[in-house]
Request: fold
Amino acid sequence: MKMTRDMETLRAVALARLDAIFAERHAAVLGPLYAIHARKAADAASIIASGVSSLLLAPEAKRRGVSEKALAAQVLIRAERQAAILGLLEAERQDAQAEIAAAKSPAELDSILAAHGG
Reply:
């Protein structure tokens, strides 16, 4: 009984460590300008859907010498690539969570975390 409780505590600690590992990996993908990139992607989707100009993208399109729709398409491609990478990371995190839930020993937990960068 005690080993079960101890493993549950260790699993909880391992899950918290796993989240910290993946938070760093997600942050590396998103980068420090994530908020502006997310806003640009939202504006780009709006431009593609409705043709409405964006105060954020219009000056950049002008500087680059492209239409807002062309820039919007480029922004959305970059956003989709980023989303795909994040999707792979999230799948890996969820797989690791399942491995942690099935772990039978503290050494197994350590091995799982090490395999995922911890």
